[in-house]
Every structure is written in C-alpha cells, then in structure tokens.
Amino acid sequence: MMQRVNVDLGARSYTITIGSGLAEEITSFVRAAGYSARGMIVTDTNVGPLCAVRIAEILDRAGVQTEIVQVPAGERSKSLAQANVIYTRAIELGLDRRSPIFALGGGVVGDLAGFAAATYMRGVPFIQLPTSLLAQVDSSVGGKVAVNHPLGKNLIGAFYQPDAVFMELDVLKTLPAREIATGLGEIIKYGIIYDADFFAWLEEHRMDVLALEPAATAHTIARSCEIKADVVRQDEREGGLRRILNFGHTIAHAIEKETHYERYRHGEAVAIGMAGAADISVRLGLLAETECVRTKELIRAMGLPLSAKGVTADAMYEDLFHDKKTVGGRIHWVLAQAIGRVTVCSDVPEEIVRQTLLGLSS
To answer: What is the C-alpha radius of gyration for the chain, rounded to an integer number of angstroms?
Structure first.
C-alpha cells in the first residue's frame, strides 16, 4: 500500500513517498540522484540506536557512504550549538556541495538537519526520513527549517525544500500512544483549516486512526500531506495563504515557551492552541458555538489536552509578541469561520485574548 504526494514547486518540486518497506524506493532514488559518494545521517539518541545503522546500509548499497551524527533527543537540540556540531563533522568528513544530509527522526531532527543542510556550503542536498507521526504530517513537508533561540521558537531558519521525503509507516508501530496523539493534533488542524470532509472522516473513523489501522493510517497521512502540499504550492514562503497552517500555533508556541518545551509535545500544545483559537473565533462572532464544540470534542477524543498546566495568562500574552508571526507589534491570528474555512485577523482585542488565555490556563 504505497502512496505518493507531489509537492509542485517548479524546480524545487519533490515527491513524498508513503508506505511500508521503502528500502528499495530509497535505494532507487539515491542511485539516480547524482550525489557525492559521502554523506551524513543526522538522528537522535532515541531513533539512532533503533534504525540508523540499517538506513546507513541501505544508502551504502545505493552508493553513498554515510556518517551517523547523533544529537540528544528533545527540543533543546534545535539550537545553533547542535547545528555547529553538524557543521564541524561535515567539514571534518570533507563533505561537498553534492553530499546529501539525511534527517532520520522526528521534527526536531528534521528542522535541525534541514537548517544545517540549508546553510552548510550555502546549501547541500537534504532528504527527510521522518519517524514520528507528527513529523510525517507536519514538519517534514513544506521546507521550513529552523533552530530555536532562547527568546522564541524557530526564530532562526530558512525556507529550504528537501529533495525527497520517505515516510515509513512501519515505524509508527513502535511509538507510544502519546506520540501518536501529538501527531493527531496537526492532523485535526488540516480538517479545520482546509477540508471539512476530512474533519468529518476523522470523527467517523477515530477508532481506526487511533489503532493505526493500515488503510486509515495511510489515508490520514496522505490527505494531511496533500493539504499541506497544496497550501505550500500556492504560497511557499508564507506571504499569505500559508499562514493558515499556523492555526493554533500562536498560543501553542507561548505554552511551549512557558513550560520550557518539556511538559507538552508540540501537537499537544497545538491542540490547546486550536481550542483557544476556536474560542476567540466564537467570541468575535466568526464561528458558531456548535462548530467550536465539535472541534473540542474531536481534540478530546483523540487523547489531546484542552488546557495547559504550569502557565499563566499574563505570561502567555507577553510571549505572543515574541512569536515570528507577530509583525510590527500586530499578532496575525488564524481564526475559524467554519470547520474547513479560516481567516487571518490582526485586530483581535486584547481583552478577548486575555479571557481566552485565562480559560486555557490551569
């Protein structure tokens, strides 16, 4: 059961391959790519011991000898310090402008390795091998790569498209339930921002999705990638439409910062942020209360939180102004008009925001 999603960006176009047992697909792609004989696999201390050697053997058969560079698992590795570790090893290995960097792991690894690939020698080939559901449906698609700064998340980065993305479904079976749920936070988002039918499908097939039933899993990932690919195709560098992908993220980033990126997984923070964005939408008269209830019920049904512990409304409100989506002191809120349709507002009254944040904090 293999599916392909094309990300149509002209000369920067690439294909996302989704399925089980992708070794031959990876081998064929690498052999045809014209890469240098040496490359690098960037992974972390969770994923590396499980499958990095196997991936290195696959790449070796394809004609690319790869060094495995392992970073500590966790959000703290999305840093300039860890990027420098990658640069140093790349220089020591003599990697050149056709030496590929493979990102093997979740979103942190993909963002970090992609940032290093975008900046080493002004850009070297980059291939995503995402191993978490969250990375498969979100960060590995679209070409946004970055590291964090102590004052904010993803503030240092670039738009840099991969050459290809390979999503191995079998690895999802090794993930704990919480990791599946965090991916579902982003998946629910796609239904809210773009596809009411997909949202309804998730409601109807919730149990199959949570159980990782193969057909349901393949459809869930493929449809999420199709939606993101279509948005990115129309607005690669976030000049307009692509902003809708940030639904729930403005509040989510504040929650992550206040809890030091440790209490909540990204998709969990996004789920809370989506509940908050839906609440603001209702308060502004944009969204019917019944649609807000449906949103929150699906979030809860997928095992995701609706409020945050260890945060205060005042601190989160201040954090909003350090988010990269805030321009000229104005927060660009992505708000829902209906399930399947959103809009961007930059004039949400402070009092409404504070009321919502107070309701989300516990």
So the answer is: 20
